[in-house]
Amino acid sequence: MAGVDRCLALARTWHAWDGRPIARAMDGGLPNTWTPHKALRRITDHLVDHLHQVEALLAGAAAVPDEWHGRMVTLDADWARFTEVDYAEACSRLRRLGRWYVLRYATAGPAAWDQTRPDAWTLREIAEHVANVSYYAEQVGALG
């Protein structure tokens, strides 16, 4: 999954983060505060959210709505320094999540990708949306 690879390429530089918040205006609105850990949390949450959406669609079940606060909050844990071990953990987690998408879509088969369902994106639309997951990593950008 190219989006995950892009996220990890940027995260590889985050050891240089100096602990100061990174402010980025989102969609022309007020700036949000970003840190390496917050970006990784949002990337993971985004992948989990949409993978759950895919599974619910394929099962014909209602999705459980997410209740996290997303980019609007910065958690205390988001301020932790970003270490080599944090990067290694992120690599393992995100590569497995990305692979999960690939395997799930392969199992569903190409005919399922464009199947329309009431009030829902198609699997193809979800995949195209998730392909832009590096958006969150771009908020921190390349450091150092």
Pairing-aware structural class of the strands and helices? mainly alpha
Number of domains: 1
Question: Regarding CATH, which class?
Answer: Mainly Alpha
Overall outline: globular
- Strand line-up of the largest beta sheet: 1-2
Q: What is the rounded distance between the termini?
A: 25 Å
Radius of gyration: 16 Å
**Beta content:** 5-15%
Which CATH-level-2 architecture? Up-down Bundle
How many helices? The count is 6
Q: Can you offer a commentary on this structure?
A:
It contains 6 helices and 2 strands. The chain is mainly α and 144 residues long. The longest helix is centred in the middle third of the chain and has 25 residues. The model has no long low-confidence stretch (mean pLDDT 94). Strand 1 and strand 2 form a beta hairpin. The chain has one domain: Four Helix Bundle (Hemerythrin (Met), subunit A), CATH 1.20.120. Helix 1 packs antiparallel against helix 3. Strands 1-2 form a two-stranded antiparallel sheet. The protein is 54% helix and 6% strand.
What's this model, at a glance?
It contains 6 helices and 2 strands. With 144 residues, it is mainly α.
Question: Which properties best describe this structure?
Answer:
6 helices; globular; 144 residues; Four Helix Bundle (Hemerythrin (Met), subunit A); mainly alpha; two-stranded antiparallel sheet
Topology (SSEs and partners):
Blueprint: H1 2-11, E1 22-25, E2 31-34, H2 36-59, H3 84-108, H4 110-113, H5 123-130, H6 134-140
Antiparallel strand pairs: 1-2
Helix pairs in contact: 1-3, 1-6, 2-3, 2-6
